[in-house]
Amino acid sequence: MDNLTLLSILGMGAIGLFFAIVLAVANEKFHVEEDPRVEALAGCLPGINCGACGYLSCHDYAQHLASGQEPIDKCKPGGESVQQALADILGVKATAVEKAFFVVHCAAGIDKRQKKALYKGVETCLGATLVQGGEGACVYGCLGLADCVKACEFNALSIKNGLPVFDHDKCVQCGKCAIACPRDLISREILEKDGKVTFVACSSKDKGPDTRKVCSVGCISCGICQKMTEGDFIVIDNCARRVPDKIKESDKKMIAVEKCPTKVIKQI
Questions:
Q1: How far is it, in rounded angstroms, from Cα 72 to Cα 83?
Q2: I want to staple 140 with a disulfide (CB 3.0 to 4.6 A). Which of 22, 170, 204, 245 is the partner?
Q3: What is the DSSP string of 21-73?
C-alpha cells in the first residue's frame, strides 16, 4: 500500500470520526426527554394504528394526549374502556362514549340498478367515477366495486348484491371505508335511544320523477317522513336526511320507516 492510499484511508477515517463525535455531542445537547406518560398512554390504546383519531399511529396520538393537545375521546375503536384508562393516567374525567353504526346511503343493489353503459376499465369505484361516472344510470349511487371493502383492515365489510354490508361486531369505526368511497355514501350515525339507527339509504339529488326513472328504491323527496314525524327527517337537495339530535330521542321514526313509499328509510 503506497503512502497516498494510506493517507486517503486515514483522512476518511478522521473525517468519519469527527462527524461521529459531532453527532454524539448534538444528540446529548439537544436530546429531549419524552414524557413518561406517553408509553403508558400508548399501552392503553389498541395499537392498530387505524388513523381514526387523526394521527398516523397510536403512539402519535399518545404524544399529543400527554402534551394536552387532544381530548381523550378520539380513539373510536377503544371505546369506553380505553377512554377511562387514558383518563386515569392523565387525571381527567372520562365522558360518555356515544355508540354508533356506519351505514350506506344507497339501497340499489345489482337487481335494482339501471345501466346507462357497460364499464370496461380499472375495477375500482374511483376509476369508474372518473369514466363518465361508471355504468349506472344514477350518478349518486353505489358503484359496487368494493373500494370500501379494500380499505377495511378488519374484514368488517363485504359486497352482497353489489352493495357494501357491514359486520358491526368487527367494525372498529376507523372510518377508512367512508374516506375510500368516492361518492361519500358511507357515514357514521349515532345510535338512538332504542339502540338502533334509522337512516335514509339514498343520496340522489335528482327530483323525484327523475329518480324514479333510474331507481325504484330511491328517495323521491315526497316529504312524508318529514311531515309524519314532525321533523325527525328533513328533505335537503331532493333527498330526505335524518335529523340526529331529534331522531335520537324520537318515538315516531318507525312511522317514516312504514310509510315511506319506496321503503328507502331503513333501520338497523
A1: 6
A2: 204
A3: HHHHHHHHHH--PPPTHHHHHHHHS------TTSSSSHHHHHHHHHTT-S-TT
Q: Does CATH number 3.30.70.20 belong to domain 100-267? A: yes
Candidates 33, 184, 50, 34; CA nearest to 106 is: 184
What stretches of the chain adopt beta strand conformation (E)? Answer: 100-104, 157-160, 163-166, 186-190, 198-200, 233-236, 239-242, 265-267
Task: Give the count of beta carbons closer than 10 Å to the beta carbon of residue 211.
Answer: 24
What are the tens digits of pLDDT across the range 203-231? 999 999 999 999 999 999 999 999 999 88
The grid cell for 168 is: 358491526
Going by C-beta distance under 8 Å and a sequence separation of 6 or more, which residues neighbour residue 192?
Answer: 198, 247, 248, 249, 250, 253
d(CA 230, CA 232) in angstroms, rounded, equals 6
Residue 117, all three cell numbers: 353503459
Distance in angstroms (rounded) separating the CA atoms of residues 262 and 95: 39
Report the pLDDT averaged over residues 190-210: 94
